[in-house]
Amino acid sequence: MTTLTDRAIAGGDKLSDMKFHELGIMEGTKSLSDADSRKLHESIKDHMGVMNDISKQSDGRIQWDTFPGFKFGGFDWKNINDMFMTHPVSSFINANPVIDGVPYENWDILKDINLDAMAGISRGMSEDRADKIRNVLERKTQAYQSGEREGGEKMEALDKEYLALEPVKIAELTTGASIVTDGTSESGQKLKDAKKQTSPTNVNAPFIVNTSSDDNSTKVINQGDTVALNNQNEYAIAAGLNEITGTNYMFGYG
User: Fold this and answer.
1) Where are the alpha helices (DSSP H) in 58-184?
2) Are residues 48 and 64 located together in one domain of the fold?
């Protein structure tokens, strides 16, 4: 996928103008042949499958910033062509995660992520309380995708609902920093700030491939590398990828 989009850009095409109007047939490009367009169509379709899988495993807490108002994690693949016809290629290529209502500039936040720890859910917490915390954070993501932003009435109400559930677990951040969410607005802000600091800028979204592996580990790295989501993932993208690097997704304590 990277090679094809690079070729299109080098040929003077704009990804924001490129769109599939029929199955595998693209408008807005002078640089790609029909065969290239079909290959790009399949690669993007596979990449969408990975995005959908990540959103599904996170129970909707992870969505994608270039698709506002659209909920990944359970869409009907019969309607996938509608997605292609209503979104330019740039939306698929540049999609970055929105987690618990917070947008990130790249996919690095997904490395070694533990959504339960990030949410303030402890091992000893009742499942009912944990589910309520997960639910309010999923609704924060959906609110962001619907155009709500921090400081707005909707987000303030969701933050209040979240803090009322008294999240208490130390948040394990990718930098190694630890912050205790003790139910106060000050600590909540510190957690938001720390999470944002763990997300470096100017890093492209990774393109995902499946590899044969005997373990169930999850692996994510950056563009130009090879990634395996897990053994349940059947999607593949083959576009000049190399060098497997292992990191893990954790969507719960497991």
Assistant:
1) 80-86, 89-93, 115-119, 127-145, 153-164
2) yes
Q: Is residue 65 part of a domain?
A: yes
Residue 185 lies inside a defined structural domain of this protein: yes
Run of H or E including 63: strand 62-64
Question: Residue type for 157, please?
Answer: A
| Spatial separation of the C-alpha atoms in residues 30 and 52, rounded to whole Å | 30
Token readout for 117 is 């720890």
pTM comes to 0.71
Report the side by side order of strands in the sheet with 102-103.
62-64, 97-99, 102-103
Higher pLDDT, 35 or 195: 35
Q: How far apart are the C-alpha atoms of 55 and 226, rounded to whole Å? A: 20
**Do 212 and 88 lie in a common domain?**
yes
| 91 and 113, same domain (yes or no) | no
Residue 141 and residue 15 share a domain: no
Distances (CA, A) of 60 to 55, 114, 208: 5, 14, 19
Enumerate the β-bridge partners of residue 170.
180
Q: Residue 112's pLDDT band (boundaries 50, 70, 90)?
A: confident
Which residue range forms the structural domain that includes residue 136? 109-197
**What is the Cα–Cα distance from 3 to 142, expressed in whole angstroms?**
33
Q: 143: phi > 0 → left, psi -120 to 50 → alpha, else beta; which? A: alpha
Please give the Cα distance from 243 to 227 (Å, whole number).
9
Q: How confident is the model at residue 173 (pLDDT cuts 50, 70, 90)?
A: very low
Answer yes or no: is pLDDT of 138 > 90: yes
Amino acid at 112: D
Residue 102 covered by a domain: no
